[in-house]
Amino acid sequence: MSTEQSLDGDAAIVTGASSGIGEATAHALAEDGADVALAARREERLESIATDLEDAYGVETLVVPTNVRSEDAVDALVEKTVTEFGGLDLLVNNVGVVAGEGVDDLATDDYRTMMEVNVDGYFFATRAALPHLRESSGTLVFIGSFAGQYPRPFNPVYAASKWWVRGFAKSVSADVGEDDVAVTTINPAEVRSEFASESGESFEERFERGEASEPTEIADAVRFAAKQDPSMVSELDLYRRDKLTFF
Question: Is 158 a catalytic residue?
Fold first, then answer.
């Protein structure tokens, strides 16, 4: 007997929804019938995606331009979603940024940007969403990274922010498991998206199709995790096939 549950009518928030993994995730959830609140800074881009989702899947959408570095903005995102959709069943913490390279020459502004987006943004959204996810016995998904699992010789601050995400997710899971809230961490390696490497070149530019994961693969992993009940996916890794040969 399958443990997968329908997402039809569920209410979801996806941060970093204007491109890449976030955009693909919004499509995957909407395809399964979820109403989706789209959060990112590029309002025009979000409006376009929302129109596509409504036209393709007949779901409700909500566009909420959000800078996740602002706790007030994140609180407003969650409050507006719950008001418009009548609750919250799924939060996908996806937004992320990389800046600079090594520690010795990393600008303080770059350090703070990575920590405020990759760490504070996940904390603010999780804090605001948890009371509603407890009510719905919902699911909390964190997009982690290969960089948050293994030591690496470049951009230790970005890696550390992803180690924080993974540790935070595990500890939140321990805290809310008795409340019937599922917590999943998904760890991709490189994904062909607008996300930029330390050189400033996007992974979409750096990798040819077939050389790295596609955003749709990560989105399918999010959808799979969201549909599990009563069990949960605690952690799921998606790597390009040659990734572990680096070791």
Answer: yes
